[in-house]
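Researcher: Last one for today. Full complex below.
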Amino acid sequence: MRYQAPRGTEDVLPTDSYKWLKLEAAFRDLTARYGYQELRTPTFEDTDVFLRTAGETSDVVSKEMYTFMDKGGRSITLKPEGTAPAMRALVEHNLCPPGTVTRMSYIIPIFRYDRPQKGRLREAHQFGLELVGSPSPAADAEIIELTVRFYEAIGIKDAVAKLNTLGKDECRAKFREAILTHAAGFLATQPTEYQEKVQKNPLRLLDSKDPEAQQAIREIPPITNYLEDESRSRFDKIQELLTDAGVQFELAPDIVRGLDYYTDTVFEVQSTKLGAQSSLCGGGRYDNLIKDLGGSATPSVGVGMGIERAIIVLDESDGWTGGTRPHAFVVQATESAFKSCQAVVRELRSAGLTALLDIDGKSMKSQMRQADKSGAAVALILGDDEIRRNTVQIKRLGSSEQVEIPIANVLDKVLELQ
RNA sequence: GCGGGUAUAGCUCAGGGGUUAGAGCGCCUGACUGUGGCUCAGGAGGCCGUGGGUUCAAUUCCCAUUACCCGCCCCA
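Model: Here's the assembly. Have a good evening.
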C-alpha cells in the first residue's frame, strides 16, 4: 500500500467497471438513434484553445487548468472541458460547412486542479453532445430532451432540467449593470476580493449560496425584463417544445454556468445526492465560440454530463440492475477429468457463453463453492464415471436439481437452464 | 485557494501511554467415500497512513505531511 492513485483521481475496479460499460452503452445507443456520431479528440490541447473560449476570468481558466510546457516549448493543457476541443476539431477539419448541421458525441476525461470532494475529482469523465450549425430553438430543445432521456434510460428518476437564459451580449450588459446597481448595498458589505469578482462577472452573484446574497438577489429584476425579442421568443419556444415532448423542466434564474462562452440558453440537471455538487450535467448554447476559434460564425448547442456523478446518484438509489453472470461453471470431480472439463468449457465459450473452471486443482467442495460464488446459472460436473459414460452432471445452482445428460447435449441443456 | 473532520484487517468499524490490538462481514480449510447455499469448528490476514517530537515506554499524546470526507469558492 505504498503508492496510491494521485489526489483527486480514482481507479475503476474490475468489480465496478460494469457500471461504466453500462452507461457508455446506454449513451452510445441513445445518441446514435438521434444521429450523433462519436468524435475522439486528444487528451491535451494547446492552452490557447481554452484561454480563447472559456473566459480568462472564469475559475476554470484562472486557477484550475493542468497547464505545462512540453519539451518543444509549447504551452499544453489537459482538457478541462469538452466543448472547446470539439469545436477546435470541427473547425480544423471543416466538419460543419455553412448551411449544414452536425451532431457529435464524445466520451472524454476532463482535468481540473481543484480541491477534491464528493463528486468532484481532478480527473473526471464526461459524456458530451454538440449540435452544431442550427440557430433553431428546436436544437436547444433537442439537446435538453436527449439529456433528460439519457438520465431516464440509465434509471435516474426525476431528472428535471433546470432552464435559464442569459440573453445575448447587449441585453446581458444591461442586465449586469442592473445587478450591480441593485446589489450595490449588499456588495459594499462584502470583502473586496468578492466585490472584484462580481464586478468582473456580475452573473456570479446569482448562484451564491449566501443567504444575504440571496436577499440582495431578490431585489434584482429578472433577466427576462432585458431580453431582446429574439432571445425571448427562443426561450418561450424551447419551453413549448419541451412541454410537447413531455420533458420535465423548471425555470431556474440562478443557473448562470461558469464558462463564459454561453449565449442565450443554459441548463443543468441536478440531484440532491451529490453533496455540495448538485449538478449532474451542464450545457447551453454557444453561438460565438466557433468564431472565437477561427471558424465562421456557427450557432451551436451542447451539453457535458458527468459520468462519476451519474454513478454516485445510481449508487445511492440502488439504481443498478444485476451485473453479468456466467452461464456455467465446470467442476472436475476427479483430477483426470481436467482435460475433458477444459474441452467442455471451450465448447461453451466458442458458442458465445461465459464458462468458468478452477485451474488450481482444488477440492470438489471448493470448486462447488467457487461455482456458487461466481453466480453461474449451472454447475457442470465431470469425473471419470461421466467420461466413461459420455455424460455430464448438470446442476442448477440456486436449487438442487441435478441430472445426468449425454455430453453431446451440454450446450443445449446449459442454454435451457439459464 | 480558504475553514473543519477523519486515517486501526480485503470491507464496515471498536479500542487504548506499558507483554500476544479486537468484532462483524468477507476469504481459506475441515465436518467418513465425487456436490455449493444454512450451521458448526479451525485458520490466514495489521510497520494502528507516512515522517518527526514528548516520554523509561507511543498504535494511543503533540507537530508536520499525504490521502479521503464535509462546508465555502466553483463545477461534471
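Chain A has a mean pLDDT of 90. The CA atoms of residues 334 and 383 of chain A lie 5 Å apart.
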